[in-house]
Specification:
Number of domains of chain A: 1
Oligomer: heterodimer
Radius of gyration of chain B: 20 Å
Shape of chain B: globular
CATH architecture of chain B: Alpha-Beta Complex
Number of domains of chain B: 1
Number of strands of chain B: 12
CATH superfamily of chain B: Oxidoreductase, molybdopterin-binding domain
Strand content of chain A: under 5%
Number of helices of chain A: 11
Number of strands of chain A: 0
Radius of gyration of chain A: 22 Å
Helix content of chain B: 10-25%
Distance between the termini of chain A: 35 Å
Structural class of chain B: alpha+beta
Order of helices and strands of chain B: HHHHHEEHEEHEEHEEEEHEEH
Number of helices of chain B: 10
Shape of chain A: globular
Largest sheet of chain B: 7 strands, mixed
Largest sheet of chain A: none
Structural class of chain A: mainly alpha
CATH class of chain B: Alpha Beta
Strand content of chain B: 15-25%
Order of helices and strands of chain A: HHHHHHHHHHH
Chain lengths: 229, 312
């Protein structure tokens, strides 16, 4: 019966496509605002810092939004929201690329020696760079062809590294802040909730397995009793 | 010796009488009275309240480098009492009342005294000092400050022989300032007495020829150009002469990151970022950071016997 209910709420393929177009454009807004700010000189006295900051924060936000898809789907029953997850994840990667490019180009001006030294010597850059490196294979395998090639199980376990990436993203932010940890703490709490929900559900699932829920055939309960004896 | 003195008119009185009266009338007439008045006052861009400091003498200490535009100097500030975002102080510091204002000088001095801000403004000829400012966050500006050597003020209170350090305490009002425990308020900074008496150390009352905007530390602050910016305490209310090295806010918050001396030094990195280069506000590419922020000729001798990598 849940099937029919959700069927009523499930948008058609055309509606999903339309929503994807809207979402695609919406995700470009932060980048457009930063680009416009840079052009119109409204980013303040230190525009390079503002762009670095902005692109980095949006990377983290998109990571958290991507990680919110599964809990949202589970809590709301709107299974079709899953259809937007890939795009959101790829946007996280795109903003991450912009962030790295800002650092390499605008901040360091391709001084590869200084960049290498930064990555080795500064823990916040080390962890940020590592998060970017780990994101790359996820972006490359975010298409139907790669899912098929890797196989669902392998693909899924690869993409679980997004949990580690998000944690590294928050740590990267936490370590770079001079003193005021307000925002890193806010991001950390959101991430903790998103990951905590998964851990909780997993744990419940495990308990159900331990109680033998999956051994129970769909028939009458007395068979279970026999097995249990 | 003929020294050109600035006029004796306090900058607070420069507002034309007619305009002043008009404002009063407006306040009286406005139904909301004081509340509206306060909102209007706070909402005024601080630049609108800046008053000219009159004729200023030039200084041989000034740099010829291109000055950072006033707009950037007054909109990109670290004044954590008003928030940790660079834009926060310009938005929020307007509520700070800078009149009446007094500076108490106490501790190991023979003539402890409380100075009124107008008295300070008339104490010595005001000079324009175009200094480089290097922030510990690796950006820099060139700012035409207005003030006179701090030594002129300290001489008035006659420091005792046992005084070795000077502590500066900034204004703190939890009603209008941050209550976040980011730093241990009130903001405290300090210098060794010989640093404080150095002719480069400026008791600063203005920038770009006008009184200081609130976000830049009105009405009176210290500027120590060869040290990272946080050493130059803003909106000072107390100066205390001490025998022992005083506690300072950033040093208390992170002793391994912010030393008591905090001289600009490209060879001593902040533990989390390099200090070898800096971004001059308005420039695209980073430039190398100079030892003592380019003031080595004047101040390096103060530290001749010290290992500056250890006593950073």
């Amino acid at each position: 019966m849940t099937r029919t209910k959700s069927a009523i709420h499930t948008p058609s393929a055309a509606q999903i496509s339309a929503m994807k177009v809207v979402l695609f454009l919406a995700c470009l807004i932060p980048a457009a605002l930063l680009a416009w700010g840079a052009y119109a000189d409204t980013l303040g006295a230190n525009p390079i810092e503002a762009i670095t900051r902005g692109s980095g924060e949006w990377t983290l936000r998109f990571l958290l939004i991507t990680l919110a898809v599964t809990p949202l789907r589970r809590l709301s029953g709107l299974h079709w929201v899953l259809r937007f997850r890939r795009m959101l994840g790829l946007y996280a990667f795109a903003y991450g690329c912009a962030h790295l490019l800002t650092y390499v180009w605008l901040d360091q001006f391709f001084d590869l020696g200084a960049i290498a030294l930064d990555i080795l010597k500064r823990p916040f850059i080390t962890v940020g760079f590592a998060a970017f490196v780990l994101m790359t294979p996820l972006a490359i395998t975010s298409n139907a062809y790669m899912i098929k090639r890797l196989g669902g199980r392998k693909w899924q376990s690869l993409h679980r590294s997004v949990y580690a990436i998000a944690i590294m993203g928050v740590v990267h932010f936490w370590w770079l802040v001079k003193k005021d940890l307000t925002w890193p703490i806010i991001y950390a709490v959101i991430l903790a909730v998103l990951l905590g929900m998964r851990a909780w559900w997993r744990n419940q699932e495990r308990e159900r397995q331990l109680q033998g829920a999956y051994l129970r055939p769909p028939g009458p309960g007395r068979i279970i009793k026999i097995i249990a004896k | 010796m003929l020294i050109k003195r600035p006029g004796d008119i306090a900058p607070s009185e420069i507002t034309p009488r007619t305009l002043f009266d008009q404002r009063r009338d407006f306040l009286r007439q406005s139904g909301a009275g004081l509340i509206a008045g306060a909102a209007l006052w706070a909402g005024l861009p601080s630049g609108a309240r800046a008053a000219s400091l009159g004729a200023l003498s030039k200084s041989a200490f000034s740099t010829m480098e291109e000055m950072t535009p006033r707009k950037d100097v007054t909109s990109y500030n670290n004044f954590y009492e008003f928030g940790t975002d660079k834009a926060d102080p310009a938005e929020r510091a307007g509520v700070m009342k800078t009149r009446p204002w007094t500076v108490r000088i106490e501790g190991l001095v023979n003539k402890p005294r409380t100075f009124d801000i107008d008295e300070i403004l008339r104490m010595a000829p005001l000079e324009e000092r175009i200094y480089r400012l290097r922030c510990v966050e690796a950006w820099s500006m060139v700012i035409p400050w207005v003030g006179f050597p701090l030594s002129a003020l300290l001489k008035q209170v006659d420091p005792q022989g046992s005084a070795k350090y000077v502590q500066f305490i900034s204004h703190y009002d939890p009603k209008i300032m941050s209550r976040l425990p980011v730093l241990d308020w009130p903001y405290r900074e300090g210098l060794r007495l010989d640093e404080a008496m150095h002719p480069l150390t400026l008791l600063t009352v203005g920038l770009y020829g006008e009184t200081l905007p609130n976000q830049n530390g009105a009405p009176v602050r210290i500027v120590v150009p060869w040290k990272y910016g946080f050493k130059s305490a803003k909106s000072i209310v107390t100066i205390r002469l001490l025998e022992k090295q005083p506690e300072t806010s950033w040093n208390m918050a992170g002793p391994e990151e912010y030393g008591f001396y905090s001289n600009v030094n490209p060879e001593v990195d902040h533990p989390r970022w390099s200090q070898a280069r800096e971004r001059r506000i308005g420039e695209f590419r980073k430039r190398p950071t100079l030892p003592f922020n380019g003031y080595a000729d004047q101040v390096a001798s103060l530290y001749s016997s010290m290992d500056l990598k250890r006593q950073f």
